[in-house]
Amino acid sequence: MTTANFVVDTTVLTGRSMKHITRSLDTIITTALMPIAFMLLFVFVFGGAIDTGSHTGSYVDYLLPGIMLITVATGVSYTAYRLFMDLQGGIFERFQSMPIARSSVLWAHVLTSLAANLISIVLVVLVALLIGFRTGASVLAWLGIAGILVLFTLALTWIAVIAGLTAKSVDAAGAFSYPLIFLPFISSAFVPTESMPGPVQWFAENQPVTSIVDSIRALFAGQPVGSDLWIALAWCVGILVVAYVLANVVYRRRITAG
Predict the structure, then answer these.
(1) What is the pLDDT of residue 146?
(2) What span, in angstroms and rounded, lies between the C-alpha atoms of 195 and 200?
(3) Domain spans of the chain?
(4) Which of 84, 159, 170, 71 is nearest to 116 (CA)?
(5) In the chain, what is the straight-line distance between the N-terminal and C-terminal CA atoms, in Å?
(6) How many Cα neighbours within 13 Å face the side chain of 141?
(7) Beta-strand (E) ranges in the chain?
(8) How far apart are CA 220 and CA 136, in angstroms?
(9) DSSP string covering 31-98
């Protein structure tokens, strides 16, 4: 298959997946509901009792980057679900009998996930603006934030692809996302890591979410990002590459076995 065929096939299959999304907009809304609920809970119930250290803005300004990551972690579970249902429905076997690029089937799910998650993030940001979020970020900073979120979404989506290809049940296909949703709670997303006990602080400061959250927070505030940005990018790219390779290995074995 040529590159041109791959692009055409991926575009057609992505259009198919996007039609499913547009016919079920409640999926995107549902994906955004839990992160929005978390945001409202922490801002209006816990926000007044949380000390954010040197951060001088409102608590929603401090909180939003972590909520964005939780939005993505929630959203990618639907990718695993849709992939699992396609496998169970025999769609993959049907595609294999057609002259299309095999990898385009996976990329269609990945690009659909990227589009759906970015829409969910926009909904979350709009709610944050309504409850007081303000930013002095420049256009370049917003592009940087978008770039980080795209990389993060792609990385988690390829993990979701692995889950969807290996799951034995519908529940298992979505359950992989629970640790990903929980991870921001042990990071700098909700409170400064300095307030945590020693071992928890060490874990929080050396896991990917903290560097990603801190980078986005600094970009929103128009502050220097420093080394956090490079650490965040290294985590995102590293996870993306490993997950992409593993997903394709699992996919080849799955279609060969089938």
Answers:
(1) 96
(2) 10
(3) 3-257
(4) 71
(5) 21
(6) 15
(7) none
(8) 6
(9) HHHHHHHHHHHIIIIIGGG---TT--S-HHHHHHHHHHHHHHHHHHHHHHHHHHHHHHTTHHHHHHTS
**Torsion sign over Cα 38, 40, 44, 45:** negative
pLDDT digits (tens, 9 = 90+) for 141-168: 999 999 999 999 999 999 999 999 898 8
Q: Evaluate whether 69 touches 184 at the Cβ level (below 8 Å).
A: yes
At position 182, the amino acid (one-letter code) is F
User: Which amino acid type is present at position 150?
Assistant: V
Q: CA-CA distance, 28 to 132, in Å (whole number)?
A: 23
CB 111 within 8 A of CB 20: no
CA separation for the pair 34, 167 (Å, rounded)? 24
**pLDDT tier at 136, thresholds 50, 70, 90:** confident
Average pLDDT over residues 184-196: 91
Assign 131 to helix, strand or coil: coil
Distances (CA, A) of 237 to 38, 119, 182, 242: 28, 22, 21, 9
Look at 9-23, 29-43, 69-83, 216-230 and tell me which has the smallest mean pLDDT: 9-23
* 51 φ, ψ (degrees, to nearest 5): -90, 115
Model pTM score? 0.89
Q: What is the CA radius of gyration of the chain?
A: 19
Q: Helices in the chain by DSSP H: which ranges?
A: 3-22, 25-41, 59-88, 91-96, 103-130, 139-166, 170-175, 177-182, 198-205, 208-221, 227-257
DSSP state of 1: -
Q: Is the pLDDT of residue 4 over 60?
A: no
**What are 54-110's pLDDT values in tens digits?**
666 788 999 999 999 999 999 898 888 888 887 777 666 666 656 566 677 788 889
